[in-house]
Design goal:
- With about 260 residues, the chain is of the alpha/beta class.
- The chain has a single domain (about 10-255), classed as Vaccinia Virus protein VP39 (Rossmann fold, 3-Layer(aba) Sandwich).
- Helices cover about 20% and strands about 30% of the residues.
- The chain is built from six helices and twelve strands.
- An eight-stranded mixed beta sheet has the order 1-6-5-4-7-9-10-11. Strands 2-3 form a two-stranded antiparallel ribbon. A two-stranded parallel ribbon has the order 8-12.
- β5 (about 150-155), α5 and β6 (about 175-180) form a beta-alpha-beta unit.
- α1 runs antiparallel to α2 (about 65-70) and α2 crosses α3.
- The longest helix has 13 residues, at about 45-60.
- The chain is globular and about 50 Å long.
């Protein structure tokens, strides 16, 4: 059987030396400074983004790392200009190719769950180690993840969205974000093992490759099929005792698909 093509890193190219044999799930002490977001002047005022963050906090997002991350990333820079006025509303928006940018509350919830892995329980200010994102989309969640993780590998199967994410992220100058064009169901073993894996698409089950590429102490946050029609968030913790799985609230994501298109 022919092997599927390996994902191809295209931006930024920072894979000249191989990753270490293991990735730390979290760091000790205070986190290192997040990569600066230094894009062009915002169309929306900082006050508008601050109000979005305040609403998220009122809805129950309590992790200061997550709130700071969403406050730092200009969401309007990841949507079409005609939709910029809606960028800080808690709504998903079209980004082309029948895909959407997730609601800010969904991004915040999933990243907060990622940071709540048991290995980080006694490190409330720690940054994650390496994170693998399945489904780059327009690049927004990758930019947010860059504020809370030491390194982000983000893989997208749709060439048009991969190119859009490159364009959107380039002005932000985030050297710890690596964009990959490839089949997300295969993961990206070269960058692993990962402290966290987060998916923006859901299937009937999680691919076994993700579990293989997850570090002991790491966590997966992803949607999976629940019942006959809906999806629910699932968290998977990989411990020394084995795999622990917990099903959470209903969500609605695009289907998880294989191949490159």
């Amino acid at each position: 059987m022919p092997q599927p093509p390996r994902p191809r890193p295209t931006f930024p190219v920072t894979l000249s030396r191989p990753p270490a044999a293991a990735a730390p799930v979290g760091g000790r002490g205070r986190p290192a400074a997040a990569p600066p977001v230094s894009g062009p002047p915002s169309m929306a005022s900082d006050a508008v983004r601050a109000r979005m963050v305040q609403r998220l906090a009122a809805q129950g997002i309590a992790d200061e790392r997550v709130l700071r991350a969403l406050a730092a990333v200009p969401r309007h820079a990841f949507v079409d200009g005609a939709l910029a006025a809606q960028a800080y509303e808690d709504t998903s928006l079209p980004i082309g190719l029948a895909q959407t940018i997730s609601k800010p509350s969904v991004v915040a919830r999933m990243i907060e769950l990622l940071l709540a892995a048991p290995a980080l329980a006694d490190q409330p200010q720690a940054r994650l180690g390496r994170v693998l994102e399945i489904g780059t989309g327009c690049g927004y969640q990758a930019a947010v993840l860059a504020q809370v993780a030491r390194e982000v590998y983000s893989i997208e199967r749709l060439r048009g969205l991969h190119e859009k994410a490159r364009t959107n992220l380039r002005p932000l100058r985030l050297p710890t974000v690596h964009l990959l064009l490839g089949d997300g169901m295969q993961g990206y073993a070269v960058g692993g093992p990962y402290a966290g894996i987060i998916s923006a698409a859901g299937g009937a089950e999680l691919p076994a490759t993700w579990l293989d590429q997850l570090a002991v102490g790491g966590r997966i946050v992803a949607p999976v099929q629940s019942g006959n029609t809906g999806q629910a968030l699932v968290i998977i913790d990989k411990t020394n005792r084995g795999i622990e799985r917990r099903l959470l609230e209903a969500v609605n994501f695009v289907p998880l698909k294989s191949g490159i298109a």
